[in-house]
Write a structure and sequence with these properties.
There is one protein chain. This protein is an alpha+beta fold. It is 19% helix and 24% strand. The protein has a two-stranded antiparallel sheet. The protein has a two-stranded antiparallel ribbon with strand order 2-3. It starts with a strand and ends in a 9-residue tail after the last strand.
């Protein structure tokens, strides 16, 4: 199963959603979208609203990811 995240080409930051801290430096901070349509809508939202948030240098792209379970750990 594929999932989708939004990444900034210029800085490598990941989109974390709406709010004050919209971009995160680390991969685990990304908002994960299960549906391609929802991810595409969010990408368009970021592209259309970045000028209102002083984020003119942001160049967002959609990245397809796969989340897998590697092994079970004994605790």
């Amino acid at each position: 199963m594929y999932y989708y995240i939004i990444k900034d080409r210029n800085t490598g930051n990941y989109y974390r959603g709406k709010g004050v801290n919209r971009w995160g430096k680390f991969y685990n901070q990304a908002s994960i979208f299960r549906v391609l349509g929802q991810a595409t809508e969010s990408l368009e939202h970021v592209k259309n609203t970045r000028k209102f948030h002083n984020e003119l240098e942001v160049d967002p792209v959609l990245v397809r990811i796969v989340i897998t379970e590697v092994e079970e750990l004994e605790v």
